Automatic annotation (TrEMBL):
SMART domains: CoA_binding
Domain ATP-grasp: 500-536
Annotated transmembrane regions: none
Name of the protein in its database record: CoA-binding protein
Pfam families reported in the protein's UniProt record: ATP-grasp_5, CoA_binding_2, Succ_CoA_lig
GO molecular function per UniProt: ATP binding; metal ion binding
Entry-linked InterPro entries: ATP-grasp, ATP_grasp_subdomain_1, CoA-bd, NAD(P)-bd_dom_sf, Succ_CoA_lig_flav_dom, Succinyl-CoA_synth-like
Organism: Cupriavidus metallidurans
ATP-binding among keywords: yes
Family that this chain belongs to: In the N-terminal section; belongs to the acetate CoA ligase alpha subunit family.
Keywords assigned: ATP-binding, Nucleotide-binding
Length: 703
């Protein structure tokens, strides 16, 4: 792990290219550090000035006469590599490079490489270039040229914010200030010639001042570093919220031109986020709302995961509302989030009906507008469901009733009592609440939202966070990988016969088959496995055999097999011909595709979904990091809708979904066992039959 102490907790700061004009890029950091209370020493470096903004200036960093922890670099791009070498010779430990004009522009990659090389050679921790800098709110350390802190800073709190984009980071800083969301640190990484977002996330995962991590990313160059950072946050029980952009072709292109990041395939990023329990935000509003929820909200009293995966955890929720219509909206949101809505327990329901005979005691629990006249009805209903043991969380819609003096008086007492009851389900409120009352509620772990559906989304996020914390305490055992045969050093692909043999050895069910090198042998194989059969060209040079006429189906006698053998031999043309694969025709009622491919960012990624010849048309695929667990494999089948083929329909028997998932697990483990040589492993189709999944074709390419 990178130690970011010199960057984020420096005892001394040098500003290279310091300006006497506070509004300039080289002047703003000095102004911020001076006006906002930084306690360390600041050394302006400017060979043309004796003083800068009231501070003694130095002609060079060496002239300071002592090593500094952090240097802020605001010099033209061509000068930056030499400045980095000077910093290294002077013993500087970290540097923030504001300057742009590097890899984000044409012909700038060489200059960025030179900058990074000098930093690495001299042991200087590099943030940037093309970044807006970093802040430590608790220590009043503002290593940025953004003037936005001058108009106010957010409170010091437990949320760490890191962004690849400086402009996003500045806007996020302003929104955090507006929302009163307490920040611990704020970091923008820019072009990431040195430190990456992943390094900051990992450091924040170990930082005692940070409890929740918010990150904006456009892409990742080193997927394993990002996975390691997310794993560290999960192990520390710290939720991570990520806004990942570049989900479309246009967005990905913009991201690459913005900070020279490769956005990568969004579905693969989502698989990574699912693996590590990341909360994904698709809008700025959701980004901060999730940060608020996870930083201030109490975890549900009860939760469970229908799939066994922490990312799919849900909590039963009681919806208590003064409006039947809004209650229905909240119930719709709960169903879309997969949150159970158990009915109101009998005792609490009887008490509510006695007080308000026309109240609804199902779930949503409609206490009606009568609570204005009988506020004790609301208080008793909230306390009754929160203490019933039937719910993980309670979501209440009060409209504007919370501000009514009689309602507030009883609500205040109820919230205080529940906050001090560790067995009670936590309460969150939607409605119009005055600022002072909102602050009082939040101080007791009662979240407040204007939008009623946001209470339900908060319950879902907090259930997931609780499950991720618990799962981190009992990590899964490493997967047991199968043994695979040695692969030819110069091979670019395996023949289908070799691919099938490897999969069979790894515990993957394949269609009965044999390799024939002449027509007579083909007949012997067919008669040993039973008709009807399929005859397929076997050549490592031709992966898509049907494209060249190398597949002949539904052969029912010896003459047909002989004729098919000659046909596929001719189809090979000048390619290497290893013979013909003769396999039993497998009958079923559906086709599933399972595969593993090497993602350029994250390594081996498993995929599963609806298969067959139309796989690239429908693209009903789900992804997981290989090797996958049984729980992940089940989720992939469900998300891609392939599980529906196994559920039993039109007279077909249902299949054991765990057994089907185990096939995907074994495929992913076989791919992982091949290791760095593997490029792609594809089985399309797996035939869905009464005997389970049977591989009818396999392609393995190597690198």
């Amino acid at each position: 792990m990178q130690d970011l102490q010199p960057l984020l907790r420096p005892r001394s700061i040098a500003v290279i290219g310091a300006s006497t004009q506070p509004e300039k890029v080289g002047g703003m950091p000095i102004r911020l550090l001076g006006e906002l209370g930084y306690a360390g020493r600041v050394f302006p470096v400017n060979p043309g000035a004796d003083t800068v903004q009231g501070l003694r200036a130095f002609p060079t960093v060496e002239a300071i006469g002592e090593p500094v922890d952090l240097a802020i670099v605001a010099v033209p791009a061509p000068a930056a590599p030499d400045v980095m070498a000077q910093l290294g010779r002077a013993g500087t430990r970290a540097a923030v490079v504001f300057t742009s004009g590097f890899a984000e522009v044409a012909n700038g990659s060489g200059l960025q490489h030179a900058l990074a090389t000098q930093a690495k050679t001299h042991g200087v921790q590099l943030l940037g270039p093309n970044c807006l800098g970093a802040m430590n709110l608790g220590e009043r350390m503002f290593a940025t040229f953004s003037p936005i802190p001058l108009t106010g800073v957010p409170p010091v709190g437990g949320v760490g914010l890191v962004s690849q984009s400086g402009a996003f980071g500045a806007y996020a800083f302003a929104l955090a200030r507006e929302a009163g969301l307490g920040l611990s640190h704020w970091v923008t990484t820019g072009n990431e010639a040195g430190l990456q977002v992943a390094d900051v996330i990992e450091w924040l995962a170990h930082d005692p001042q940070t409890q929740v991590i918010l990150a904006y990313i456009e892409g990742a160059r080193d997927g394993m570093r990002l996975r390691q950072a997310l794993a560290a946050a999960r192990a520390a029980g710290k939720p991570v919220v990520i806004a990942k952009v570049g989900t479309t072709a246009a967005g990905a292109s913009a991201a690459q031109s913005h900070t020279a990041s490769l956005a990568g395939e969004d579905a693969v990023y989502q698989a990574v986020f699912d693996e590590y329990g990341v909360h994904r935000a698709h809008t700025l509003e959701a980004f901060f709302r999730l940060g608020y929820t996870l930083a201030r909200g109490r975890r549900p009293a009860r939760w469970h995961s229908p799939t066994g995966m922490a990312a799919d955890a849900v909590a039963p929720v009681a919806i208590v509302t003064v409006s039947g219509g809004v209650g229905i909206m909240m119930a719709d949101s709960a169903e879309s989030q997969g949150l159970p809505l158990p009915p109101m327990p009998d005792a609490a329901a009887a008490a509510l009906r006695e007080a308000v005979p026309f109240a609804s005691t199902s779930n949503p629990i409609d206490v009606t507008g009568q609570v204005v006249a009988q506020p004790e009805v609301l208080a008793d209903a909230l306390a009754g469901v929160a203490r019933s043991g039937a719910y993980g969380s309670v979501a209440a819609f009060l409209a504007g009733g919370g501000n009514a003096p009689r309602v507030w008086s009883l609500l205040e007492q109820t919230v205080d009592d529940l906050a001090n009851d560790p067995q009670a389900a936590p309460l969150m409120i939607a409605g119009v609440i005055s600022d002072d009352k909102r602050a009082w509620l939040e101080a007791r772990g009662c979240l407040v939202f204007r939008e009623p559906a946001h209470t339900i989304e908060a319950v879902a996020a907090l259930a997931k966070a609780a499950a991720m914390t618990e799962s981190a305490q009992s990590p899964a055992a490493p997967a047991q990988l199968p043994s695979v045969p040695d692969l030819p050093a110069d091979a670019k692909a395996l023949s289908e016969a070799d691919a099938m043999a490897l999969l069979l050895q790894a515990g993957v069910p394949v269609a009965p088959h044999g390799l024939a090198r002449d027509a007579d042998e083909a007949v012997r194989v067919a008669e040993s496995i039973g008709y009807p059969v399929v005859v397929k060209l076997c050549s490592p040079d031709i992966l898509h055999k049907s494209d060249v006429g190398g597949v002949v189906l539904n052969l029912s006698d010896a003459d047909a097999v002989r004729a098919a053998f000659e046909r596929v031999r001719r189809a090979a043309g000048t390619a290497r011909f290893d013979g013909a694969l003769v396999a039993r025709m497998v009958r079923g009622w559906g086709e599933i595709m399972v595969g593993v491919r090497r993602d350029p960012v994250f390594g081996l990624v498993a995929l599963a979904g609806i298969g067959g010849t139309a796989v690239e048309i429908f693209r009903q695929m789900s992804f997981g990091l290989a090797p996958v667990s049984r729980e992940r494999a089940r989720a992939m089948l469900t998300q891609s809708r392939a599980a529906a083929l196994c559920a039993g329909h039109r007279g077909h028997p249902p299949l054991d979904l765990d057994a089907v998932a185990d096939v995907i697990v074994n495929v992913s483990r076989a791919a992982d066992a091949i290791g760095e040589r593997l490029d792609t492993l594809e089985i399309n189709p797996f035939i869905v039959s009464a005997d389970g999944l049977v591989a009818a074709d396999a392609v393995i390419t190597l690198r």
